[in-house]
């Protein structure tokens, strides 16, 4: 593939050549007409995917829309719904089973889907658990930048950890979704074969899957394949069907896990980078074994906002000192008691005035409480990134610690150094897990990042496939470039498999990456329209030098559990991995008493709506604003027009247990800004509206609320692509 990437792809990257134009014409003329739109169900539209199956909107009330008194964010450690009193960059300590914030039973490093799943599993026990994340939100690493496929496990080499945990984890998703309501669709997967040799590979996959315990595998002939998926390449002659494969939105899955874990007593701290781990020598089996140093950072826009909105106590002190000195001199040299009394009265009046002025400056900083959205938006701190240039391009090192939510990407500045003690550590740090292991002298593996680029198309392309479509797997690069309809109805294309230690792969141009994805996906489904591209992104898979998942106690210390090198199908295996980690902790001496107050249920943030929903209101930011008090008004007020996200859904997300201080965090929880206009300020300005609502809920100035980063990891040249770029994408399909 290296040679193909370097030479063949670049040779074929001449979109204006006669040969390229000719190949487009021939390809188009050879294809049969595209199949009609099948109107496949989309999560949240006329119903939801619940427990793997479709649930009509009429049935959502009794199953999907959990009552508040059932959900963990209300039933367990009570939330006062006053977000302005919650600490920044951490969960509220009132919810935690550990009150002093200094010493814990277990510290989990990394809040992706693996770390969050382990945190939830440990929250079932009477333990003090701290979950730390280097980025500005949970799920900002590999969890955010992947396909979200719940693989069945037929492709994994028998005897490996991948084979051991993938099918087990797959079978746990239906129940998990019934409890946490993150949205899970059991859509099935198809591996396409185009010749007899590839048909032989399908037979090998069936045998491998059966060895791994995977059930219900079936090989389809061409007719059966076309009946299931009429838009697949007509040249495909057979396919392997795995009906138990499914898909989720990976970051929504991790958010649900982390939220339920925090509701059940786990403490979360974001923007905390582990800088050192020290062994504590103690003969007491119940004492802490490790001291962890955390660097707490905050983004530059927040630091600048704090400086702008703070009073100037030094100036106050200087003025007061000077005035009191003069008064003292005057009293000392006053000629009689009457003059002294006048001076004393004047002094008392001055003191009262000063106290009043100081109190006003301290406690009446600019805030957003009881202000309408339009009042807050009148003070826009900046335009959206991507509107007029600027922004930060994410590199591989940034991806190791949170990508677009990392220290570098947000111009982070250190605000504090924290030290915590713990009896056990679980290392789920993804791309940085080898560095965390090195801190205790464990150098048994090295993380070798593999980049995976994606292109995301509009919802109007999602009808082209119900199943996740794969080519026959590559013996080196794995499952290959896939075509999949996401839970919400978008068509997703990718990923690449670019090993960062190979220059010809890591240095591929954006145009070459796009050509590779589009041309490979066209071989599976030739009917999609790349002009409907709305977004592009890249994730970093944490492949390890050991070639398999690492789930074991460290050889240096059995109280330090390694959960590293978890690449695909890690999301599918995550629930089973979490159960295994609990066993490893027990084997290492951690006593676990079940928590009788554990609540497995979580209410959804989104509200399913009909395709044509009556009662929803759109308009200028102030027209339907509720001031955050009238729930009926919030439920009717549309904040994101493309995705029909309401003010109530935004407010629900902010008032949950995880810290939120950006429109990007809301985007991942509600889809506000994820539609075809991508938050275009000239359309409906949903990003600006979201930032204003978050500022109002937290009662902070708008400058403290972050926006969506751009360009981050995209291969697109513009956040809102123009017709010229759309034409280029179309040419790169061939």
What does this structure look like?
By secondary structure, the chain is an alpha/beta fold. The protein has 24 helices and 25 strands. The strands form 7 sheets. Strands 3, 4, 10, 11, 12, 14, 21 and 22 form an 8-stranded mixed sheet that branches. Strand 17 (482-485) and strand 18 form a beta hairpin. Helix 5 (113-122) packs parallel to helix 10 (250-263) and helix 6 (161-170) packs across helix 19 (570-587). It is globular and about 115 Å long.
Q: What descriptive keywords fit this protein?
A:
734 residues; alpha/beta; five-stranded antiparallel sheet; 18% strand
Q: Tell me, briefly, the overall form.
A: globular
- The pLDDT mean sits at 88
Report the strand count. 25
Instruction: Please report which band the strand proportion falls in: under 5%, 5-15%, 15-25%, 25-35%, 35-45% or over 45%.
Output: 15-25%
* Biggest sheet record: 8 strands, mixed
* Poorly predicted parts: 1-26
User: Radius of gyration, rounded?
Assistant: 28 Å
Distance between the termini: 18 Å
Structural class of the secondary structure composition? alpha/beta
Helix count from the secondary structure assignment: 24
Helix residue percentage: 25-40%
Short description:
The protein has 734 residues and is α/β, with parallel strands linked by helices.
Write the layout of secondary structure elements.
Layout (H helix, E strand, L loop, with lengths): L1 H10 L6 H13 L16 E4 L2 E4 L3 H4 L8 H4 L27 E7 L3 H10 L6 E4 L16 E2 L10 H10 L2 H8 L8 E5 L2 H16 L6 E4 H7 L9 E5 L3 E2 L2 H14 L3 E3 L2 E8 L10 E9 L1 H10 L3 H20 L4 H27 L9 H5 L14 E2 L2 H4 L13 E15 L5 H6 L8 E11 L10 E3 L11 E4 L5 E4 L3 E2 L3 H4 L3 H13 L10 E12 L5 E5 L2 E8 L5 H18 L43 H6 L1 E3 L4 E2 H8 L8 H8 L15 H13 L12 E2 L10 H9 L3
Parallel strand pairs: 3-4, 3-14, 4-10, 6-16, 13-25, 14-22
Antiparallel strand pairs: 1-2, 5-9, 6-8, 7-8, 11-12, 12-14, 15-18, 15-19, 15-20, 17-18, 21-22, 23-24
Helix pairs in contact: 5-10, 5-19, 6-19, 12-13, 21-23
């Amino acid at each position: 593939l290296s040679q193909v990437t370097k030479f063949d792809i670049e040779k074929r990257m001449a979109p204006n050549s006669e040969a390229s134009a000719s190949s487009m014409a021939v390809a188009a003329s050879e294809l049969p007409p595209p199949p009609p739109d099948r109107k496949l169900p989309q999560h949240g539209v006329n119903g939801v995917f619940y427990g793997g199956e479709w649930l009509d909107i009429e049935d959502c009330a009794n199953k999907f829309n959990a009552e508040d008194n059932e959900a963990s964010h209300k039933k367990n450690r009570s939330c006062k719904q006053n977000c302005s009193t919650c600490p920044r960059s951490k969960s509220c300590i009132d919810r935690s089973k550990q009150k002093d914030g200094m010493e814990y039973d277990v510290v989990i490093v990394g809040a992706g889907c693996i770390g969050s799943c382990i945190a939830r599993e440990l929250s079932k026990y009477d333990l003090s658990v701290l979950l730390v994340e280097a980025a500005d939100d949970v799920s900002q690493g590999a969890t955010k930048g992947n396909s979200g496929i719940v693989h069945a496990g037929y492709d994994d080499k028998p005897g490996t950890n991948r084979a051991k945990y993938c099918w087990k984890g797959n079978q746990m998703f239906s129940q998990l979704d019934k409890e946490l309501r993150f949205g899970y669709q059991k859509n099935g997967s198809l591996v396409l074969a185009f010749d007899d040799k590839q048909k032989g590979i399908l037979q090998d996959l069936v045998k491998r899957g059966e060895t791994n315990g995977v059930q219900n595998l079936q090989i389809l002939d061409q007719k059966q394949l076309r009946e299931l998926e009429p838009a697949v390449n007509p040249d495909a002659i057979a396919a392997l069907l795995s009906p138990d494969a499914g898909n989720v939105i990976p970051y929504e899955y991790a958010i649900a896990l982390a939220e339920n874990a925090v509701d059940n007593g786990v403490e979360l701290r974001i923007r905390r980078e582990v800088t050192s781990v020290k062994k504590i020598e103690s003969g007491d089996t119940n004492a802490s074994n490790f001291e962890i140093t955390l660097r707490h950072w905050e983004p530059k826009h927040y630091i600048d906002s704090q400086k702008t909105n703070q009073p100037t106590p030094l100036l106050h002190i200087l003025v007061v000192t000077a005035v009191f000195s003069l008064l003292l001199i005057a009293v000392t040299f006053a000629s009689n008691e009457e003059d002294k009394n006048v001076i004393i009265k004047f002094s008392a009046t001055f003191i009262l005035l000063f106290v009043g002025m100081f109190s006003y400056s301290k406690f009446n900083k600019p805030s957003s409480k009881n202000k309408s959205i339009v009042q807050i938006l009148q003070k826009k701190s900046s335009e959206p990134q991507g509107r007029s240039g600027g922004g930060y391009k994410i590199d591989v090192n940034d991806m190791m610690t949170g990508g677009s939510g990392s220290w570098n990407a947000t111009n982070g500045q250190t605000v504090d150094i924290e030290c915590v003690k713990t009896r056990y550590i679980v290392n789920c740090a993804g791309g940085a897990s080898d560095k965390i292991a090195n801190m205790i002298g464990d150098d048994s593996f090295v993380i070798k990042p593999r980049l995976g680029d994606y292109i995301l198309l509009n919802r109007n392309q999602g009808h082209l496939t119900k199943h996740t479509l794969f080519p026959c797997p590559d013996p080196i690069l794995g499952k290959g470039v896939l075509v999949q309809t996401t839970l919400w109805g978008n068509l997703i294309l990718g990923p690449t498999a670019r090993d960062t230690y190979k220059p010809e792969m890591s240095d591929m141009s954006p145009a070459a990456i796009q050509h590779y994805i589009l041309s490979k996906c066209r071989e599976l489904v030739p009917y999609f329209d790349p002009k409907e591209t709305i977004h592009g992104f890249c994730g970093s898979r944490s492949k390890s030098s050991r070639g398999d998942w690492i789930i074991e106690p460290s050889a240096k210390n059995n109280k330090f559990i390694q959960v590293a090198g978890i690449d695909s199908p890690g999301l599918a295996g995550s629930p089973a991995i979490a159960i295994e980690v609990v066993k490893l902790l027990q084997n290492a001496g951690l006593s676990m008493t079940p928590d009788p107050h554990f609540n497995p249920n979580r209410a959804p943030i989104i509200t399913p709506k009909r395709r044509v929903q009556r009662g929803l209101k759109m308009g200028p930011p102030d027209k339907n604003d509720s001031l955050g008090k009238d729930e009926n008004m919030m439920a009717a007020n549309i904040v994101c027009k493309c995705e029909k996200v309401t003010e109530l859904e935004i407010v629900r997300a902010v008032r949950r247990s995880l810290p939120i201080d950006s429109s990007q965090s809301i985007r991942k929880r509600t889809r506000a800004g994820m539609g075809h206009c991508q938050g275009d300020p000239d359309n409906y300005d949903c990003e600006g509206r979201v930032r204003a609502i978050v500022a109002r809920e937290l009662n902070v100035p708008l400058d403290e609320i972050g926006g969506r980063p751009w360009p981050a990891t995209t291969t697109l040249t513009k956040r809102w692509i123009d017709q010229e770029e759309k034409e280029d994408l179309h040419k790169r399909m061939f």
